[in-house]
Amino acid sequence: MPVISLPDGSQRSYEGAVTPAVVAADIGPGLAKAALAAVVDGQEWDLTRPIEQDASLALVTSRDTNTALQLVRHDCAHIMAEAVLELYPETQVTIGPSIENGFYYDFFREIAFSTDDLAAIEKRMHEIVDRDEDIVRSVWTRDEAVAFYREKNEPFKVELVEAIPAEETVSFYAQGSFIDLCRGPHLASTGKAGHAFKLTKVAGAYWRGDSNNPMLQRIYGTAWLTEKDLAAYLHMIEEAEKRDHRKLGRQLDLFHLQEEAAGSVFWHPKGWTLYREIEQYMRRRLEASDYVEVKTPQLVDKSLWEASGHWEKFGENIFTSETNEDKILALKPMNCPGHVQIYRQGVKSYRDLPFRMAEFGSCHRNEPSGALHGIMRVRAFTQDDAHIFCTEDQINSETVAFCNLLQDIYADFGFTDVRVKFSDRPEVRAGDDATWDKAEAALIEATEAAGLETILNPGEGAFYGPKLEFVLRDAIGRDWQCGTLQMDFVLPERLDAEYVAEDGIRKRPVMLHRAILGSLERWIGIVIEQYSGRMPPWLSPVQVVVAAITDQANDYAETVAAAAAAAGLRVHTDLRNEKIGYKIREHSTAKVPFILAVGSRESEAGTVALRRLGSDGQTILDCDEAMRQLASESSPPDLKAGNA
Fold first, then answer.
1. Annotated catalytic, 579?
2. How many Å from the N-terminal Cα to the C-terminal Cα in the chain?
3. Contact 457, 423 (CB under 8 A)
4. pLDDT at 441 over 80
5. Where do runs of H (alpha helix) occur along 510-575?
């Protein structure tokens, strides 16, 4: 007689095995209709799967958005596989999980899927949903599963099942004529998945990610709980394509990438101006917050990375070079061991702490070529990295100061919606459990002192300590993880960093690893997409174009441009023998914030005709007044009146 314990503390007893669906119906018809799945003793469970002993039970409904979405997306993957086999029975089905925002399935088929095929598959998926086929779980022995797939001549599935220990059982899920090896759980029927899905693309993927294996075809789709959510996501994807930093980088002549330097950026003059403006802004903010800036070597002997633990953790992603003396040098993938070496020069006292050390550190990581993505994911990048060496008593105040600085900087770039994830100890880590208990408790206390609400991100801490991950939301609703704060009691011990405490005893400092932008390259890509290339004036590579209306106004145009440069503006002069309308359209396409048109009338009056990007009209201003206005509007946020 299993006793079922419910979240409200109540219990229900049953004479025999009972399914979550029966429990839901006992509670009430509304819940029976709304229930999608269950959580039994902490494990996700099908509504129709029997519970045979005492257990805790929580029912999952659409209000449990994340769990419900995963269920719907997983079901859609199976529905897609069923549709493919109905339409193209020669196809072999391999693996198909739910993923962020959707799902995919990998198929083996001699003929490539076309766009028309995707439309046909999607149509058949809607038909399968309308059929409302029951989704039924069954449990087989490993050997039964192997025999089943061998009989069907599906070697990919045979390989998967044979990797399972012989004594284990495996679960299958069947719907209509389709059956597949799967852990589950699933919804009760295909109709529960709804119609808020769309197939998005097909791409190549090697079996099990190995280029030595056969090439499969991966069909991607997206699925949501409502048609409204689907429409919003598709609109976001459309906007994202318009804002793609790679396309805008070419259009605005900011940078380019080429195969001969895969994973490294060729910055053009305009792009490098943008890069330097951000770097200079960050440098001013760091100096105002009492950071000292350093520069550490690019090549460091392998022994230091072994001592820090990075070699064991990241060795496969570290570029190396062998010297004439047979020493192995590593091209640094991060800055922290180098910063510890600077800290260790000379005896440090408690009076020297906190010691805030910053570096625009040039790093290299051997990322797989398939993972590279524009300037968002590269092999050569620069971090706005810093490490704060402090006492345990200073952790809270340093955390509060850092979080305030980060939020101010994000706001200056137009990002005000920021979420914070708390990432605790990973499975593979340095340091003992006592050290991790101490570090996690210290970071939790510091987070509370900073007044931050956090979302638990289990097992995603750094190998040397727990961390906060700052996730900002952009103008079209996408999330980007950028800033981090990591609490480290391990590296100071491993690399022998210490200070003399007030009582004369030598102690280990706490090391706070922190970044705000993260990779400057990635940050610039995010900013380009945030503004769709139309930068705020302070970030625009060219802030002002002075365009002559007639050749007779060329000399005056040069005078106006000189005045703009003297006011600290980045200015370009357009004296081409083209109509003013053509010039305005061209510079508007290049997303220049301000265009000053000058002709004979302006020359005689000492005025300019100001056109702002996005405005059809123009304003006639005295030249000096125009420079005052534009200089004020183009000033970096930290240098505007009242902030300097």
1. no
2. 73
3. yes
4. yes
5. 520-530, 554-566
Is 238 inside any structural domain? Answer: no
Q: What is the CATH number of the domain that holds 51?
A: 3.10.20.30
Domain that holds residue 553: 544-639
Do the beta carbons of residue 214 and residue 206 sit within 8 Å? yes
- For position 641, what pLDDT does the model report? 59
Asked if residue 124 and residue 102 are part of one domain, the reply reads: yes
Confidence category of residue 579, pLDDT binned at 50, 70, 90: very high
* CA–CA distance, 216 with 106 (Å, rounded to integer): 6
Mean pLDDT of 157-171: 92
Domain boundary among 232, 263, 284: 232
Q: Residues 164, 262: one domain?
A: no
pLDDT band for position 369 (cuts 50, 70, 90): confident
| Active-site annotation holds for 365 | yes
Indicate whether 312 and 328 sit together in one domain.
Answer: yes
Q: Is 364 a catalytic residue?
A: no
Tell me what the mean pLDDT of segment 607-619 comes to: 93
Domain contains 19? yes
Do 324 and 365 fall into the same domain?
yes
Distance CA 582, CA 62 (A): 54
Give yes or no: 385 in active site.
Answer: yes
Tokens of 368: 């797989």
State the catalytic residue, choosing from 513, 522, 583, 587. Answer: 513
CA proximity to 518, closest of 368, 354, 383, 370: 383
- 524 and 581: one domain? no
365, 379, 522, 587: the catalytic one is 365
pTM of the predicted structure, to 2 decimals: 0.84
54 included as an active-site residue: no
Annotated active-site residue in 387, 425, 587, 591: 387
- Reply yes or no on whether the pLDDT at 643 is more than 70: no
Furthest-apart CA atoms within the chain: distance in Å:
99
What is residue 548's predicted lDDT score, i.e. its pLDDT? 97
Catalytic residue among 76, 182, 336, 623: 336
pLDDT band at 250 (very low <50, low <70, confident <90, very high): very high
Judge whether 535 and 475 are in contact, CB under 8 Å: no
**Has 70 been annotated as catalytic?**
no
Q: Are residues 50 and 119 in the same domain?
A: no
pLDDT on residue 642: 54
Q: Which of 502, 530, 558 is the last residue of a domain?
A: 530
Q: Cα–Cα distance between 569 and 594 in angstroms, integer?
A: 11
Provide the number of structural domains found in the chain.
4
Q: Is residue 239 part of a domain?
A: no
Catalytic site residue from 384, 385, 424, 574:
385
Q: What is the mean pLDDT of the chain?
A: 94
Rounded mean pLDDT, 536-543: 98
| 316 lies in some domain | yes
Instruction: Let me know if 629 is a catalytic residue.
Output: no
Q: Which residue of the set 70, 92, 175, 383 is catalytic?
A: 383
Token representation of residue 100: 């962020």
The one catalytic residue in 270, 467, 570, 591 is: 467
